[in-house]
Amino acid sequence: MTGALYMYLTKEEEAVLNGERGEAAQIAMSVLVKLGEAYEADRMIKIQHAHIDAASYATIYEAGLQFCEKMVSAGALFKVPATINPSAIDFEAWRELRVPSEVTEKQIRLARAYIKMGVIPTWTCAPYQNGANIKYGQNVAWGESNAVFFANSVIGSRTNRFGDLLDVCAAIIGKVPRFGLYLSENRRGTMLFELQDLPVKKFTRSDYGALGFLIGSTAGTEVPVVVGIPRSVTVDQLKFFGAAAATGGPCALCHIVGVTPEARTLKAATRGEKFKDKVTIDLREFKEVKEKLSTTGDREPDLVAIGCPHCSVEELREIASYLEGRRVKRGVELWIFTSPSAKSLAREMGLLNAIEGAGGMLIAGSCPLYLPLSGWGFKVLITDSAKMAYYAPGLHNVDVVFKDTLSCLKAATTS
Amino acid sequence: MGRVSFKCRPVTRGLAEGEALVTRQPISFWGGLDPAAGVIIDKRHELYGKSVAGKVLIFPYAKGSVSATTVLLEAVRCNSAPVAIVSIEIDPVVAVAAFLAEKLYGKVIPIVDKPEINPLEAIKSGDLVRVDAVNGVVEVLRSQS
After folding, report:
1. What are phi and psi of B121, to 5 degrees?
2. In this complex, do B99 and A295 lie within 8 Å of one another by their Cβ atoms?
3. What is the ipTM of this complex?
4. Residue range A142-172, pLDDT digits in tens
5. Which end of chain A has fewer surrounding CB within 10 Å, N or C?
6. Which residues on adjacent β-strands are paired with residue A192?
7. According to the 3-state scheme, what is the secondary structure of A247-281?
8. Which residues of chain A lie closer than 8 angstroms to B104, CB-CB?
């Protein structure tokens, strides 16, 4: 029942597979072909861009580092523009963040390997806000679950949920096997979500996160279609929604009617076919999921972490303006995560001064989930991100409080 | 009663036997599995604290972070990986871990999906299971009950 042996390869692709274009290309092609065979792809297709998820030593470990260094020594070079996810460390502030020097050393080795392969060193999980120039209808190969969601659901590019190291293989070859979300028929919305009495117009980014989490976990492997999200929804709100949807489930594509380019109307979202399932989300259910994202009640936090996914410049502006004239409480750390390029803009705009002046830290190119925190002994983390609220207890052995950005900042500061 | 045996789609090629570890909940391997120890660390998961090392891991599908690939690959490197995987639907992020494990460490993890019956009902944790990812057959060799 496998289509295994029947994927069509061009003469050039066969030459790559046979090692005639070097060992790195051969390894990358062999992994892509195996994937294509397993998923019954008919052929390979070109991609225009890659986003590398395998960026952090905290997510790829020794095995991933070995792979990347092996590929570099075998002559690997990226064929398409490739942005990259956050690193395990802030390259400029790892000492302050108490990162063990072993992790730093490994992360720097990994960064060197990627620079040699030709990566654009964005070190961000929000490439769509930091220089990834992709457009509607384009085939790309993106890793990072929130970025995959955004590329498919907000921009209307096409990508599967590609995992660590496969993204590297795809960037080297500039092609991927054609299956899954590269095919129009698999992009059809199959499960309808209707919102009942939810005050969406007043939703904070965190509310969008909670709603995303609920939809992602309910949809499972179906393609959700959501009606009732206003067209005024912001890019940052969609970022929170998508990150949480892709945490609650394997959600790579969600049709937000009126927002998603392929879902201008409900009919377009389903390509005129019937739904397999319909779900109504009411206020009670929504409140319940918000509560469940916290693992503790109102215990005093010792870490306030904002920026999962990375803060945009707009968000930094909002945060800096709140911090004006306030101080971070004694015994509390306020960590705000962003990309190196947004940090550079924030410096120029005076936002960095405002954040640091209040006693907060603006951490660039890293991630609250990747940073090794064992040197800090944090007990309670408060965050505005549903994604972080879900992962932090397992990764950092902390309790989590999930609140909107303003409440997080309030918990961090005194005036 | 005859032994339970059902057909599946082989995703990787290989053959393995082991004790089943079954969950109805999807798994996020990154943030959910400690790859060095092979233990589930997601406190919200019903398998929290359980070891997947050497087990036939049976779960509906993978969710969450796409770093599932490297977590599983690192688990293979540390000899803490499941010996085989049976899913309703295998995410590419899991399949690629097995392809790379073969390439980098010469280790094969048989993976099958699209089973003709629901394995989450047919198999219980503790059952001895054989996964034949060459012919696409899963068989319960010894049942707990």
Report:
1. -100, -35
2. no
3. 0.90
4. 999 999 999 999 999 999 999 899 999 999 9
5. C
6. A225, A278
7. HHCCCCCCEECCCCCCCCCHHHHHCCCCCCEEEEE
8. 63, 66-67, 70
pTM of the model: 0.94
Residue A379, token pair as written in the block: 């007990």
Residue type at A202 in one-letter notation: K
| Rounded (10°) angle between helices A166-173 and A23-38 | 120
**Same domain? A385 vs A250:** no
Q: Do B70 and A248 touch (CB under 8 A)?
A: no
User: Could you say which of A135, A157, A177 is where a domain stops?
Assistant: A177
Domain count, chain A: 3
A–B CB contacts, 8 A cutoff, strictly below? 139
Q: Is A304 left (phi over 0), alpha (psi -120 to 50) or beta?
A: beta
Give the domain CATH number at A55.
3.30.499
B80 is catalytic: no
Per residue in A360-403, pLDDT tens? 999 999 999 999 888 899 999 999 999 999 999 999 999 999 99
Same domain, A110 and A165: yes
Range of the domain at B95: 5-142
Q: How far is B19 from chain A (nearest CA, A)?
A: 25
